Structure formats: structure tokens, C-alpha cells
Amino acid sequence: MTIRSASDRSQIKRLPQRAVYDRAAIDAIVDESLICHVGFIDEGQPFVIPTIHVRIGDKIYLHGSPASRMLRSLARGAEACITVTQVDGLVLARFPNA
What is the DSSP string of 28-95? Predict the structure, then answer.
């Protein structure tokens, strides 16, 4: 998969001042993340699969069996999105609805 630049579909709408579109910053976030979630549609049904990844240049390589639904769908040209998450802190409350 190739990393693409921001588009109308991928620009942050809520708190846009917090968004980062700098390629070096995005590469660092992708590189530091241990797991990614790959979203795709197969036969009209959406799927999101957690997997591991590695970025080399502007390509992201995904771990998986060639027989997996995810990799078969991507090989057939299914559009996909990849989400990485970094947890750098937790906000805790004394009560669940506080």
C-alpha cells in the first residue's frame, strides 16, 4: 500500500489545528506504532483487521497469510484505509460517569 497525501476525505474537521500533515511526522507515527487496523470492504461487507506492519519509504507492508480475506481483497484492488494508534496517556475518573 502506498501512503497518500491529505485529501478532502482525509482532512481533519474537528479541531483541525491539532492535525499534522507533515510527512516526516506521519512517518514517525507509523514507524512507532506496533499495530495497525486495516479497513476494507469485501463482498459489500466492511471489515477491520488488526495486524502488524512496517513502512519502507512510501509503502506500508502488512503481515498476513496470502490466503487471508484481507490480503486477497487488497490484491483484487479493494480500497482500504490503515489506522495506527499511539497511546501516550490515560485520563481516569473516580466514577464512570464523572
Answer: HHHHH-S-EEEEEEETTEEEEEEE-EEEETTEEEE---TTSHHHHHHHTT--EEEEE---------SS
